Amino acid sequence: MSPSDFLSQCPGLSGLNAYMRPLSVTDVKSCVEVENTFPEQERCSEEKFIYRLTVCPTLSMGLFIKTPTGGRQIGHVIGARISSNTITEASMGMPENWQSLPVSEPVVVDGQTVGNDPSGGNVAIHSVVTIPEFQGKGIGRDMVKAYVEYIREEARDVKSIVLIAHDYLIRFYEQGGFKNRGTSECRFAGGVWTDLVCDI
Predict the structure, then answer these.
(1) Please, which pLDDT band fits residue 5 given cuts at 50, 70 and 90?
(2) Which phi and psi (to 5°) does residue 56 adopt?
(3) Contact assessment for residue 144 and residue 128, using Cβ atoms and an 8 Å cutoff
(4) Among residues 13, 122, 158, 166, which one has the fewest Cβ atoms lying within 10 Å of its Cβ?
(5) So what's the pLDDT on residue 2?
(6) Within 13 Å, how many C-alpha atoms sit on residue 97's CB side?
(7) What's the pLDDT at 133?
(8) What confidence tens digit (pLDDT) does each residue in 44-64 have?
């Protein structure tokens, strides 16, 4: 099943001409707007979007609906490569002065890779979100399923997709094919999270 097949079967998107595509730095502003759905301490900054969509753009996908003037972004899944099989605080970060560093080499600080690891065998999802007016309709679930299928098709060397989630979202991700691996060691934004993994 192709990613577009998941979206075409989603009742919450019926009649909306929805599509997903990889994101680029030209989408940063709309990504920031979508990300504002999260509590402030959990949002990805504009600077970090620029970083992620520059060094690993093919691992981030936006959900759009066609409009008379083009497309409106209503959701996204933001990813990066990591070597670890769980999210770490370092992997959630962004290297200092990354613009002056080669994108083909990992940045290691105190023994941990910061941000994207170009040779990493896993994909870390850092953000999954749909804007409020499209929540509660199964769209996020189908967007995650479409993203997993996209990674299976486009990144054949990836072993698994990993993420951290609040407890109330565990079932949501389990419906998307993820397995609960227990409490995460990552304390992103000062929270307690659960590790989830989807084998590819």
Answers:
(1) low
(2) -150, 55
(3) yes
(4) 166
(5) 60
(6) 2
(7) 94
(8) 999 999 999 999 999 999 999
Domains of the chain, earliest start first:
3-162 (3.40.630.30)
Which distant-in-sequence residues (6+ apart) come within 8 Å of 119 by Cβ?
81, 83, 106
pLDDT of residue 190: 86
Compare 41 and 5 and report the one with higher pLDDT: 41
In this structure, the strands spanning 122-130 and 160-165 are parallel
Q: Quick one: pLDDT at residue 68?
A: 87
3-state SS, the chain, equals CCHHHHHHCCHHHCCCCEEEEECCHHHHHHHHHHHCCCCHHHCCCHHHHHHHHHHCHHHCEEEEEEECCEEEEEEEEEEEEECCCCCCCCCCCCCCCHHHCCCCCCEEECCEEECCCCCCCEEEEEEEEECHHHCCCCHHHHHHHHHHHHHHHHCCCCCEEEEEECHHHHHHHHHCCCEEEEECCCCHHHCCCEEEEEEC
- Reading the block at residue 159, the tokens are 């072993």
Q: What are phi and psi of 163, to 5 degrees?
A: -160, 170
Q: Is 23 buried (19+), middle (13-18) or exposed (0-12) by CB count in 10 A?
A: buried
